[in-house]
């Protein structure tokens, strides 16, 4: 009797599983490689850049692996480092790109988290203010202004992490001379006011802040196609002294369509470049390069009071590289 009942239950569960699958129910798997290195009592987030291409190129498989990574880690949020919509941003909050490149692509339950979003240069070709307005009608899109801050408590009473989302576009001289939307939009901004805000935020950070992370679009350093570009030199000359003075721990950026981790000799700040959310370009190395690859993918970041662990994950879910950044002066 028990054997018959057991077979019935087994068959019933199988039919139920098939029924749920047919109705669109889907339980994503976990990433076993990530699971093995998961930090306990950590604040987890994903870092994605240069992604909005209507699901084309690597965008869809990267989105799927992001959902798996978020489930595996118990992700708290997503960071977007800009170029959210190609080729020309969005026109309004009703633009079809919102669905075609964002809502329908990152629709998985485990990506239904806050998205801290920076503006990229391609976003300036459109109506950048529409991306700010979208924050008012979306539960997860976080962009209250062109630059802003957010503070999150670390788990287990380990202090706080400060995120400063900046807009690097007004700092690029060539954009000031462009015609059309991007030039008009950039010229509306006040670069000096933003720099004063950034310095004030860093100088007045709470004593409970253990980590300071800055999020922007353009990199300070690159071994990729923009290794010696004027825009890279401009951003580095402007922001590097500020980051050094105020002991910024990490800078998350994109713009280059690859995945790089760089810490030049003598620099306190580690740069994590995650710009491979859809299309990719050749990568390369420079002084201070710890990792570089031309592959579709994203990064995961896990933060405790004394450690930042960043993993580079490609569009197939393979963990290509993991880097630990230590906070040696931390005492719980």
Explained architecture:
Helices cover 29% and strands 23% of the residues. With 332 residues, it is α/β, with parallel strands linked by helices. The strands form 2 sheets. Strands 4-3-2-1-12-13-14 form a 7-stranded mixed sheet, covered by helices on one side. The protein has a 7-stranded mixed sheet with strand order 5-6-7-8-10-9-11, with helices on one face. The termini are far apart. The model is unreliable at 1-23 (pLDDT under 50).
Short descriptors:
332 residues; 9 helices; disordered N terminus; alpha/beta; seven-stranded mixed beta sheet
Short overview:
With 332 residues, the protein is α/β, with parallel strands linked by helices. Helices cover 29% and strands 23% of the residues. The strands form two sheets. The protein has a seven-stranded mixed beta sheet, covered by helices on one side. A seven-stranded mixed beta sheet has the order 5-6-7-8-10-9-11, covered by helices on one side.
């Amino acid at each position: 009797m028990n054997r018959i009942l057991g077979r019935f239950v087994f068959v019933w569960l199988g039919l139920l599983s098939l029924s749920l699958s047919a109705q669109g129910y889907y339980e994503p798997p976990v990433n076993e490689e990530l699971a093995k290195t998961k930090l306990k009592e950590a604040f987890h987030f994903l870092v994605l850049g240069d992604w909005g291409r209507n699901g084309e190129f690597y965008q869809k498989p990267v989105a799927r692996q992001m959902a798996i990574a978020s489930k595996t880690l118990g992700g708290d949020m997503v960071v977007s480092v800009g170029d959210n919509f190609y080729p020309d941003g969005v026109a309004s909050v009703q633009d079809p790109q919102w669905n075609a490149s964002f809502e329908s692509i990152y629709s998985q339950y485990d990506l239904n988290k806050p998205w801290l979003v920076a503006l990229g240069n391609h976003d300036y070709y459109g109506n950048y203010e529409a991306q700010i307005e979208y924050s008012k009608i979306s539960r997860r899109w976080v962009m209250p202004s062109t630059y802003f801050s957010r503070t999150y408590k670390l788990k287990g009473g380990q202090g706080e992490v400060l995120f400063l989302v900046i807009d690097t576009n007004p700092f690029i001289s060539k954009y000031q001379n462009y015609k059309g939307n991007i030039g008009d939009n950039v010229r509306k901004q006040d670069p000096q006011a933003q720099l004063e805000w950034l310095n004030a935020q860093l100088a007045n950070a709470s004593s409970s802040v253990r980590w300071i992370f800055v999020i922007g679009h353009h990199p300070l350093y690159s071994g990729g196609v923009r290794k010696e570009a004027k825009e890279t030199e401009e951003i580095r000359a402007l922001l590097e002294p500020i980051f050094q003075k105020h002991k910024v721990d990490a800078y998350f950026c994109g713009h280059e369509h690859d995945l790089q981790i760089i810490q030049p000799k003598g620099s306190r700040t580690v740069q994590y470049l995650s710009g491979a959310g859809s299309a990719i370009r050749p990568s390369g190395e420079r002084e201070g390069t710890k990792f570089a690859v031309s592959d579709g993918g994203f990064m995961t970041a896990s933060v405790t009071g004394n450690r930042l662990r960043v993993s580079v994950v490609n569009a197939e879910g393979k963990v290509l590289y993991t880097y630990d950044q230590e906070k040696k002066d931390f005492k719980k």
